[in-house]
Amino acid sequence: MNNTMKKAIYGGLLVIVIAACWALWQYFQVQPLAAGFASGNGRIEAVEVDISTKIAGRVDTILAKEGDLVQTEQVVAKINTDQLRAQLIGAEANVASAESQVASALAAIEQAKAELVLAEQELYRAQELIKNNHISKETYDTRVSQVAVAKAALVAAKAGLVYRERMVDAVRASTTEIQTQIDDCVLKSPVIGRVIYRLAEPGEVLGSGGKVLTVVNLADVYMEVFLPSAQANNIAIGAEARIKLDILDFAIPASVSFVSPESQFTPKQVETLSEREKLMFRVKVRIPQDLVKSHIDDVKTGVRGVAYIRLTTKSGENPAPWPDFLQKLPPEAEPVSVNNN
């Protein structure tokens, strides 16, 4: 093989390598957008929720492992309640005792009423007898005093009933408080999500607020991007968006749920136009919850990609169609707008 042929082969190989590198570089670049769209790099994120103990106690059981998918209100852990149940038995005994005192107070009222009736009857007879001087003035005064004493006794008996009824309310409230603490020892997931950290094990003693599990909330999956002020000013809450992840060959429909009212990167002194153009605003693009649930086993946070957002058009203008590389959506997906953060 002569030198001329070798040079031709090497030159051809070099051209192929350069063309392949150029095609690969183009593949990983953000596709150019037509007017009316904005884009920004970001990653899939979701809110992390800590499942913690409300009261101090010993961990009894943990029913979830790292990586498990948990549903809303699913029991994921339990704290030992032996001491609280003993306190509950004592509180219930106090309720029974207080209720018996209420019954005693009711009986005292009935007795006071009977004594008042008798005292009033004797006073009535004394009034008839004193008219004819059949009894002394002293005896009559005694009958009047007995009526006053009986009335006071009835008032005291009724006050005693109110006091004992409030005592019943107090001990019942104590019972309810203990029962609430027992209920709080059953830890439930507040969201649908995946366990990413198991922070305690059975037998450990945790203080109030001790963390047991950390769950990533898959009901709120989003991507945050930073856009310049000129674009952020033309983004409305609920605006249509699409997310293109590096690992997927289709776009994910989404919508804008938050636009920061304050810039994130602000020079100390904004004096020139070039400096003002550096102002960046945080924009949150949220994926519809129904779409997340239909692919919940495949949802992974931290995956990188690009969010594309449709900007607000002037009145009377038709919105530009999405670029070809964003036309392909998941089979069951339909663009949905949301207005909550």
Looking at this protein, list some descriptive labels.
6-stranded antiparallel barrel; 4-stranded antiparallel sheet; disordered C terminus; 40% helix; 6 helices; Helix Hairpins; 341 residues
Order the strands across the largest sheet as they lie in space. 1-8-11-10-9-12
Q: Specify the number of helices.
A: 6
Q: Under CATH, the topology of the domain at 82-184 is which? A: Helix Hairpins
Number of DSSP strand runs:
12
Could you list the spans in which at least 5 consecutive residues all have pLDDT below 50? Answer: 24-28, 267-273, 335-341
Could you give a short account of the major beta sheet? 6 strands, antiparallel, barrel
Instruction: Tell the overall outline.
Output: elongated
**CATH homologous superfamily designation of the domain at 82-184:** Helix hairpin bin
Helix content: 40-55%
Radius of gyration from the CA trace? 40 Å
Strand content: 25-35%
- Mean pLDDT, nearest integer? 82
SSE pattern:
HEEEEHHEEEEHEEHEHE
Derived structural class: alpha+beta
Quickly give the CATH architecture of the domain at 82-184: Orthogonal Bundle
Distance between the termini: 70 Å
- The CATH C-level name of the domain at 82-184 is Mainly Alpha
